[in-house]
Amino acid sequence: MTGNGSTDWTVRRQQDCAQFLNDFVSALHNETVNSEQHEKINKLLSITIIDEFICAGHTLNNCHPKQLSPTIYPCCLPIPALNSNSLEHSLSELLCVQNHFERKCSQCPEDTGECSTKIQNEPEIMSFQFQRFSFDNLSNKTLKINHPIQIPMTLSLPYPDEPVYNLASAIVHSGTPSNGHYISLVRCPVSGRIFQMDDQKAPTIYDESTDLLNQAYVVIYSKKTKAVHTVNDVGPPIKKKQRISVESDVSACSVQLNASNSNEKTSCSDQDVCRDDAMFEAIMSKITSNSIDKIID
Prior knowledge:
By secondary structure, the chain is of the alpha+beta class.
């Protein structure tokens, strides 16, 4: 995959994951055969932000707000990391009102005013890239911002219909600006359990004590369509001995699910939800680095 042609992703070397995601979506757009497919990709992944300018003399001169040209991000929306303590804080910094913004008003002589930034659309999947790498003019080097930033399990956008998004995954970068290592955290949409994916290592349940999630470089949210149970809400699967077959081009394997104690209580009201949770975890446990490499190839 070459994306927009600026980066060659066929070479196995250190690359920026946010740039990869944006190039991947750009490659999808290049493969579309009609405008309908193009629009589906936009509704699913793309984020559009727009600036609105109100001149300082709008009250006296009856000037109308001026919307500037929108900026479309194929996948990841960059948000500030410096001095931020949470994802919500970073978004508020991005979407804040800038006072004394210098811009010539097209309706009156004023050349200053207020400029506010808004997210114009509500994609099904919202991805945010923390700007953890910044250039320091004093040292003439690119520095990495390593402080933790709180990542919520659910995110509400400040709009009239208040769309709610659930955390789906996060990508953590460890290392320096010039090289490092990526770890993926994948959240089960049923139980809310978070799995840690780390190269050749088998996927494991994420250990919250490591605070790895709050070191995220990229976070991905999906629009909430139904309630997502938390780890404590969902008990073990209650259906007796179900065998799951996981088939792929790499290998075929079967996973035996043990019957749970019939006297054990579970707060899951739907047996199918518990069963889906067990299937998800069983499939995750069978993922290997070889299978991932063959899928990529």
